[in-house]
Amino acid sequence: MKKTSLAFLIICFIFFFTGFKGFSQPSSEHGKISGDFGFSGMYYQPDSLINAAEVEEKVRGNAYLNLLYTNKQFTVGARYEFYLFPLVDFEQIAYKGQGITYFFADYKNDFIQVTAGTFYEQFGNGLTLRAYEDRNLGIDNSLLGTRIKITPYKGISIKGIWGIERKNFDFDYLTRKDFVRGGDLEISFTELFPAIAEKQFAAQIGASFVSKYENPTHPVLKLPANVATWATRFNFRYKGFRIESEYAHKINDPNNTNGYIYKNGEALFASASYSMKGLGTSLSFIRADNMDFRSQRDISSTTSLLSVNYLPAINRQYSFPLLGNYSYVSQPNGQIGIQAQINYLIPKKTKIGGKYGTNISLNYSRFHDIEKNIVPLADSLGSMRGTDGYQSNFFKFGPHLLYQDIGLEISRRFDSRWKLELAYNYISYDLNILQGHADTTLFHGHHIAADLLCKINTKHALRLEIQHLYSQQDMGSWLHAMIEYSISPNWFFSVSDSWNYGNNTAEQRIHYFNIAASYIIKTTRISLQYGKNREGILCSGGVCRTVPASYGVGLSVNTSF
Amino acid sequence: MKPTILVLLLWGILYSGFAQEQPEALKTTPLPSVEIKTLDGKTINTKELSNDGKPFIISLWATWCRPCIEELSAIADVYDDWVEETGVKLFAVSIDDAKTASRVVPFVNGRAWDYEILQDLNSDFKRALNVVDIPFLCILNGNGEIVWQHTSYAPGNEEEIIEIIRKLSK
Questions:
Q1: Which of A149, A560, A561 to mutate to test binding with chain B, by most B CBs within 10 Å of its CB?
Q2: Measured between CA atoms, how close is A43 to chain B, in angstroms?
Q3: Residue B48 DSSP one-character state
Q4: What is the bridge-based pairing of β-strands B35-38 and B43-45?
Q5: Would you state the pLDDT for residue B26?
Q6: Do residue B97 and residue A132 have CB atoms under 8 angstroms apart?
Q7: Is the dihedral of CA B96, A312, A169, B1 positive or negative?
Q8: Contact present, A188 and A211 (Cβ < 8 Å)
Q9: Does A324 or A226 have the greater pLDDT score?
C-alpha cells in the first residue's frame, strides 16, 4: 500500500510540474483549456494523548484535477478525483473512492443555455434547491442530468433542472430509484424598467418549485413517492435601504431525519439592512421547521449527504482557531434565530479615527430550537412515527438556547508599519443538540484576541496573534499564540501553539504545536506543515463535520492554470 | 517516507523557482463568460466587465475570509492614489453564499470601500476561473484579457499589483 501511495505522490508531482505547462497555452481559434489541481497529503503518526489513533495506511492523500475547455459558446469540463486512501477525516465521512465525478457539456447564447452532464445550481437562497461543492468539507451534491436556462426578455430568467444527486463515490446511477427535478422563475423589475433604476429603486421577485421522486418502499408506512417544495422570494432596495425575504414550504416528507412524521415543512428567511459610506447595519431572521430535504429518505441527519436544499446558518462565522469547535450548526428541522451587525468606520484623518480610520464591528446572534407541541401519539411505542408529529407556533422561540454570540471587533492601522486588531466574543453553545455530546450543560466562553501586524518593509511582514478562551465547561480554557513571517509575494512561515491549560484532567493539558511553511507563485501554492491538530468540528456555511485528532507531516499543492 | 516527500518538495520549489526566472511575455487569457449579479440584483455576464479601455482588477473575496479583507483593506488605503495615477478600477466579486450574502453591502459600506461589488452566489465564476482558494486576484488589460493571476495574500503584494498596472497603462 505504501508503494501505491508513494507512486501516486510522484505521479502527481510529475504531472503537475511537467504536463501542465503545456496545457495552458491559450489560442483563440482553438478554444482555451484551463484547469486546477489539488493535492493534500499527510503522513500520520499515532499520539494516544490527543486521541490520534494509529491509521491503517500512514501516508494518505486527496487529489483531484479539473479541466475545462471553452470554445466560443461551448464549454466542456471534467474532474477526476483520487480519494482511494483519503485523509482520515474524509475516510470518516466515507468520502472515499476514485473516478470521474464531474463531466459536462454546455452551450450558451444570449437567449438560451443548455447543460448536459453534471452541474451545480441554486434557486434563490437555496431553500428549495442548492447543488454545490465545498471541497474542504467533502461536500459535493452536484446533479447529473440536464439543465436549461432561458432569458426570453432582459430581466426575466427561467431555469429548469432534472437530475440525480451525487452520493460520494457511488456511481450506481442506473439502479438509483430517486431523482430531483424543478424550475425557477426570476423577474428583475430593475432590468425590465430601467427608469426605476435611475430613481435608485431596485426590485426582483422569484419563485421556485422542486420535487423529488423516490420509489416508496416501507413495510408499515404508506410513503409519498413524490415530495414537493416551493418557495417565493423578493428583494427590494431604495437608496441605502434593502430588504429581502424568501418563504419555502415542503409537503409531507416522512424521513429518517424527522422520525418519519407527515407534517409539512416550512422556512422563512428575511433580512433588512441600511448602509451608507462608513456605516453598515443589518438584521436577519431565519426560521426552519422540518425542512431537511434529501434525495433519499433513509439518510441520517449526522451526514450532509444527498441534501437537496440549503438552510443557511446566518450567524457570523469566525476564523479564530479556539472558537472553531463552537461554530453554530444549522438545524433544518427546527431553528429560529436572529443575527444583527453594525460596521462603522471612525473617519480617516480625525482625532479618534487616526490617519487611516478605525473599523468597529458589533455583532449579536441568538438561535433557539422551535416550539414542538407533540400531537396525540398514534404509535404504541411512543414515537411520533407515522403521525403529524407536532404543532408549532410560528414566531415563538423554543425552550432551548442553541447558540448565542455577542462580539466586538476593533481594527486600526497606526501608520504604514503597524496595524492592530482586537476582538472580544462571548459565546453560548449547546454541545448536546448541536454536536451530540452527552453533556447537556450549556457551554459559555469568553474569547479575546489580539492580532498585531508589523510591516517591516515593502516585502517583509511579521504577524503576532494571541488568543485566550476562558471557560469552565467542555475542555475548559485555552491559550493560543502564533507568529507568522511573510515575504511578499512568495513565502510564509509560521509557528503556533494552542495550549489547553484549563482542562479539568491534568493529562489533557496539552500543547498543540504546529510549524508551517508555504511557497506561493502566482496561482500555485505549496505548503508543508508539521504538528498536532486537535479533535473538533470543521464548519463552513453552517454545515459542519467532525475532524479526528491528528499528528504528523502534511503537504499540500494547489495550482490553477 | 518523509525524506522522499521532502526531496519532492524541494525539487518542486527549485523547479518553480527556475520557472519564475525565465523571461515571460505577458500571456493573455480570456475572461470566462459567467452570469453574476450586481448589488441591485441585475444579472450581468463577466465578459461585460470593463474599464473604458484601461486596465482593471478582479478580486474574489468573501466577508468570512480574513486574508481577503486584509488584502482589500490594504488596497483601499492606496486606492485613491492608484486610480488617480493609472485610472485602474477594482471589481470585488464576493463569493458569499445565502448565509452571508445579505451582509455584503453593509460590510463594504461599513469599511467605506470604493470598489465595485459583484456577487457570485453559487461560486459559478470561481469555478470557471479554476480558483482553488480565495483570496484570488487577477489583473486584466484594457481589452478585458487576464494578464496576471495570484492566489493568497501576503502584506506587500499590493506593490507588485500596482507595478503591473503601471506597465499596462503605459
A1: A560
A2: 8
A3: G
A4: antiparallel
A5: 59
A6: yes
A7: positive
A8: no
A9: A226
- From B122's Cα to the closest Cα of chain A, the distance in A is 7
Residue in B closest to A361 by C-alpha: B110
Cα(A508)–Cα(A500) distance, integer angstroms: 7
How many Å apart are CA A34 and CA B32, to the nearest integer?
A: 10
What does B112-143 look like in DSSP terms, one character per residue?
A: T--SEEEE-TTSHHHHHTT--SS-EEEEE-TT
**Residue B97 near residue B19, CB atoms below 8 Å:** no
Are B16 and A521 within 8 A, CB to CB?
yes
**Distance, CA of A72 to CA of A53 (rounded, Å):** 52
What's the ipTM? 0.87
Least confident range from A364-368, A535-539, B19-23, B75-79: namely B19-23
Average pLDDT over residues A124-153: 94
Side chain identity at A254, as an amino acid letter?
P
B124 contacts on A by Cβ (under 8 Å): 120
Q: Does the structural domain B27-169 have CATH classification 3.40.30.10?
A: yes
Of B4, B104, B93, give the one whose Cα is nearest residue A284.
B104
Q: What angle do CA A327, A477, A48 make, to 5 degrees?
A: 85
Sign of dihedral through CA atoms B94, B95, B97, B99? negative
**Which ranges constitute the DSSP H helices of chain B?**
2-21, 66-86, 104-110, 124-128, 157-169
Degrees (nearest 5) of the Cα angle A455, A457, A463?
A: 25
CA distance A226 to B145: 47
Alpha carbon distance A424, A322 (integer Å): 13
Nearest residue on chain B to A5, judged by CA atoms?
B1
Contact A309, A129 (CB under 8 A): yes
Beta strands B89-94 and B56-61, pairing class? parallel
Q: Which of A184, A342, A519, A523 to mutate to test the interface with B (most CBs of B within 10 A)?
A: A523
Q: Do the chains contact at B99 and A542, CB–CB below 8 Å?
A: yes
Task: Say which of A32, A280, A492 has its CB closest to residue B110.
Answer: A280
Closest to A187 measured CA to CA, from A154, A156, A158, A152: A156
pTM for this model (two decimals): 0.88
Written as tens digits, the pLDDT of chain B (170 aa) is: 445 554 554 454 444 444 444 334 557 888 999 999 998 888 899 999 999 999 999 999 999 888 999 999 999 989 999 999 999 999 999 999 888 888 899 999 999 999 999 999 989 999 999 998 889 999 999 999 999 999 999 999 999 999 999 999 88
A197·B40 Cβ contact <8 A = yes
> How many residues belong to chain A?
561
Q: Best of B99, B115, B150 to disrupt the A interface by mutation (most A CBs within 10 Å)?
A: B99
